[in-house]
């Protein structure tokens, strides 16, 4: 197999996987294992203080894996195999495939699909490539499936979307945290210490989750609502806040707008009604309110649970309303935050690979934004296309309105909702090009597969869940035959008639990104590679001007937001009145149960990378179906026996795992695997009207013994 170059010495960088972006050092392996490279946690990086989870620790294994791609693959005839090809042939094929479709059907028949794992530089270059070189409006990315509803709710309430408006280090110092639909014990284990420390200092941890997760086990209070009802739960708590006279009237008057409407909406959700909707007893609700309000400061943190719903934006909005009514936002050690999932989930949404956005988190339909970015790009604003389709709508349009696709950093055959349908749409394309490090399930369908460099083989920045811009440094050379995404875009741009070239040096791209972001909501203009290295990360916004508080020197960056004012026009946070509504699918006679999906510690997202790391695969070799003993008894299913989960969209088969840690009306499946056990064969693509987030977290299913089907 290809052996990557060993790092000459220890190189400081960050993990390729989740949004915690743990600091790690890559160094020559002591025992020559893992292709000569090992990853060790960096104790000096204050987020993980040396800790890494199994995914981060084993990440170097993929650098030297025999299954990684080390040369382009081309399908030379329809229905034929993917065969090795030269870069010349492969790039020519991609350029021809994209331009033929463009010539025949117009620029919007060509789509681009990106990912929340791409570095800031790549996300920026991909958006620019789509809009200038291809001239298409049809670009979106898998981050739409990740936290887009939290982003929309943050924009709506605070005028700015940064997942966490405070650093993680504030968590142990607050008085109470409500974690909603978040399971860091499994998804980002090193983050768990923040909550453990909170409890050691006497703070309270409340976990809202239909499952008794390993995170819930550590909570002072665990509320287990029916999936898809946490909006009602938040409203019930707000109702009690009002009824018990716990509203912070002074804060509401001074720093918010819209309270009367939000209050009226909450008052319509009296606790007994909320108990009927959620299944959470009123006394538990009261306990949660007391823990939250008795503490001098408190936080609500959400993750995918409340966000991946067809009412995700309103659900997050309901939790924000609770924070605002109690004065728990825009104050030290208090606030609402989102625990972003993907490695660059935050940065991925700021630089223009989102269907409706330009760099700097600017809106594509804002004339001033178009003008600014067009100036940086040296083009007329009129050549910039308008907003395109959101991720699921784009995938759903493949083979119809969108007939050619360039995809990088994503594996929607496994990770998209209603995945069998999405797979069919992808297979019906006139032309598909995929950039990846391995032959993912989506790459297998491509006409051309371009092997790209991995995280440790190129430099770039990511923006962690804290809104902190970090530097991932190149530590080893990529094998010959592999190119970086930036080099691929440059080579394609040249072939597609873009004469000005696309920079391939990440620092040069970052320089351009800084200019494009200047004055935008996510302003990076004061951030340089050098500063990131010296300061071990810089929190945006960080404009290229002095801080304005009289202190000398450059802007220090902004670890804490909203302490003086929110980012809305009038500086006030906006209450948004929201009401309970049921999930898009409710159980009925045919599909009497609810399915919720999620993750396991040893796998990441679609598993394209982690399933190919032996140690992780041994730890989590395949999917399973969690069911309550009562349900298992009724079905006559024993632990380990294969069961079929059936929804209106498909069927998935996996061994039963029987646990009292789940509601009897709910089953759970992790979604990291393709094939017969693909959980996303079942999930519902019903979209949130505001964020266009699909309803991954709840749909109606029935469960059968697999033999009975
Ligand atoms: Fe990597 Fe996330 Fe694990 Fe840290 S918690 S090592 S960032 S996957």
Q: What does this protein structure show overall?
A:
With 709 residues, this protein is of the alpha/beta class. It has four domains: 11-63, Single Sheet (N-terminal domain of TfIIb), CATH 2.20.25; 73-146 and 344-531, Rossmann fold, CATH 3.40.50.740; 148-338, Dimethylsulfoxide Reductase, domain 2; 593-708, Barwin-like endoglucanases. The chain is 29% helix and 18% strand. The chain contains 22 helices and 30 strands. The protein has a seven-stranded mixed β-sheet with strand order 5-4-18-17-16-6-7, with helices on one face. A hairpin with a 4-residue loop joins strand 19 (460-463) and strand 20 (468-472). It is globular, with a radius of gyration of 24 Å. The mean pLDDT is 95. Iron/sulfur cluster binds at residues 15, 17-18, 20-22, 48, 52-53, 55-56, 188-190. It comes from Streptomyces glaucosporus. Residues 8-67 form the 4Fe-4S Mo/W bis-MGD-type domain. This is 4Fe-4S Mo/W bis-MGD-type domain-containing protein. It holds the Pfam family Molydop_binding. Keywords: 4Fe-4S, Iron, Iron-sulfur, Metal-binding.
What layout of secondary structure does this protein have?
Elements: E1 11-14, E2 23-28, E3 37-41, H1 54-58, E4 73-75, E5 82-84, H2 87-105, E6 110-114, H3 120-134, E7 139-141, H4 148-158, E8 176-180, H5 184-187, H6 192-200, E9 204-208, E10 221-223, H7 230-243, H8 249-255, E11 256-257, H9 259-267, H10 271-278, H11 282-294, E12 298-302, H12 304-307, H13 312-325, E13 335-338, E14 357-358, E15 362-363, H14 367-377, H15 391-396, E16 404-408, H16 412-415, H17 419-427, E17 431-436, E18 448-451, E19 460-463, E20 468-472, H18 485-495, H19 506-517, H20 529-535, E21 538-539, E22 573-574, E23 593-598, H21 614-619, E24 625-627, H22 629-635, E25 642-647, E26 650-658, E27 666-670, E28 684-687, E29 694-695, E30 699-705
Parallel strand pairs: 6-7, 6-16, 8-9, 8-12, 9-10, 11-22, 12-13, 16-17, 17-18, 23-27, 24-26
Antiparallel strand pairs: 1-2, 2-3, 4-5, 4-18, 14-15, 19-20, 20-21, 23-30, 25-26, 25-30, 28-29
Helix pairs in contact: 2-18, 3-18, 3-19, 4-13, 7-9, 7-10, 7-11, 7-13, 14-19
